TrEMBL record:
<keyword id="KW-0653">Protein transport</keyword>
<feature type="transmembrane region" description="Helical">
    <location>
        <begin position="176"/>
        <end position="199"/>
    </location>
</feature>
<dbReference type="GO" id="GO:0042937">
    <property type="term" value="F:tripeptide transmembrane transporter activity"/>
</dbReference>
<dbReference type="Pfam" id="PF00854">
    <property type="entry name" value="PTR2"/>
</dbReference>
<feature type="transmembrane region" description="Helical">
    <location>
        <begin position="220"/>
        <end position="240"/>
    </location>
</feature>
<keyword id="KW-0812">Transmembrane</keyword>
<feature type="transmembrane region" description="Helical">
    <location>
        <begin position="327"/>
        <end position="344"/>
    </location>
</feature>
<dbReference type="GO" id="GO:0035443">
    <property type="term" value="P:tripeptide transmembrane transport"/>
</dbReference>
<dbReference type="InterPro" id="IPR005279">
    <property type="entry name" value="Dipep/tripep_permease"/>
</dbReference>
<dbReference type="InterPro" id="IPR000109">
    <property type="entry name" value="POT_fam"/>
</dbReference>
<feature type="transmembrane region" description="Helical">
    <location>
        <begin position="22"/>
        <end position="40"/>
    </location>
</feature>
<keyword id="KW-1003">Cell membrane</keyword>
<dbReference type="InterPro" id="IPR050171">
    <property type="entry name" value="MFS_Transporters"/>
</dbReference>
<feature type="transmembrane region" description="Helical">
    <location>
        <begin position="104"/>
        <end position="120"/>
    </location>
</feature>
<feature type="transmembrane region" description="Helical">
    <location>
        <begin position="428"/>
        <end position="450"/>
    </location>
</feature>
<feature type="transmembrane region" description="Helical">
    <location>
        <begin position="389"/>
        <end position="416"/>
    </location>
</feature>
<keyword id="KW-0472">Membrane</keyword>
Amino acid sequence: MTTHQTQTSQTKSFMTVSMIELWERFGYYGMQALIVYFMIQRLGFEDSRANLVWGACAALIYVSPAIGGWIGDKVLGTKRTMLLGAFILALGYAVMTIPSENTWVLFFALGIIVVGNGFFKPNAGNLVRKIYEGDDSKIDSAFTIYYMAVNVGSTFSMLLTPWIKDYVNEHYGNQFGWHAAFAVCCVGLLVGMGNYFLMRKSLSKYGSEPDTKPVDQRKLAMVITGAVAAVGISALILEYQTLARIFVYVAGIVVLGIFIHLIRSSEKHERAGLIAALVLIIQTVFFFIFYQQMSTSLALFALRNVDLNFNIFGINLMTWSPGQFQALNPIWIMLLSPILAFLYTKAGKNNKDFSIAGKFALGFAVVAVGFFVYGFAGNFAVNGKTTSWVMIVGYGAYSLGELLVSGLGLAMIARYAPERMGGFMMGAYYVACGISQYLGGVVANFASIPKGMSNPLETLDIYTSLFNKLGMAAVVCTFIALAVLPLMRRLDKRHQGIH
């Protein structure tokens, strides 16, 4: 096969995976834009319960890919597991369309989504790696485009599902809008799977070893049985907050214990890289506590204390639904990613590139600016409602921080982790992210509004007080990140073998 034919084949294969990933993210973020509002406004949850349920769910969503990746590699095959995950996710969103106020319907639906995500997420990413295996020059640009597909899917769904919810509620009754919006998430997955089946031949050469053999019915039955059990366990964790706390803290202690054991038992030349990775993973945990505010305290701030009209000189340009503000995150990511990539490349050519640890410190600094913007918003609020332009500026800082910290998390693992520990380190990174998602829900509860309090003048002070404290916490994280920079430089030199 000629080089041109190989490139065409790779591009088609890559587009097949990217399209199903785009639709999967369409479904997931469309659900995320509404889920906390749904629990509070439709099911009558208190803020504190909604924040913790979603925090626990996000934690499970981050932890589950560790098992799904192993099933894809060793048991069913990467492609089959990815497709099974897409089907399970569609089923989860379908359950959320049931117009019931029984909380167990919600918990089982979220449990199904946790399991579906665990099957889908790691295997879609692994397929992209396999398509460009051995071609480092292409894999970076492929993952950049892949990340853009994620953001395109999430932007459209976060703008669409809140609008559908409002439109249907207004015209067909106050309960059906929620379920119509979740139905759109389900349809997104079905479109993604349909597209995959049309283009599946482009992936015939790629996959893990089990993909090359007929489906082992016994193994498939065992995986499905395990998936059903995992849905039940996830639902129980979401219903009973004590179980969620135990799960999160045990996961944290186990990962930290394994990390310490690996550092103590590793080869001397590996130790510096492992310590550097541990320091940066701990910093990532703090970042994701801030990140989780987007779908909890910031989402509720938009609901209660933000003027939904975008006004310039008294002219209303447009009106948004509270849930649509979350779309500002992927919009900013798409705008800022190419600029950052250009700056990194230019700095690298002039030997002036920041270290990953330096970028983490800068990331925390801009996150602090974002939260201070939200905190300051109370000073020019009218009748407890602040301008929606505050959300645009705050999300801009927030998203830049995400690119500097979260966007470099996997690059950090690739750089510092010894190859033989790559799988565990990737898993540890995601478990750490999951723990911090739950802790983010705990932090959001410092601004939980008591039932019955609806006056924006009262709720404004509660939110701005939390945002100012989070801004100060991000400043502290910035100084800690700066303080460990000399240590990180020494570890980096040792890791590279420069003494």
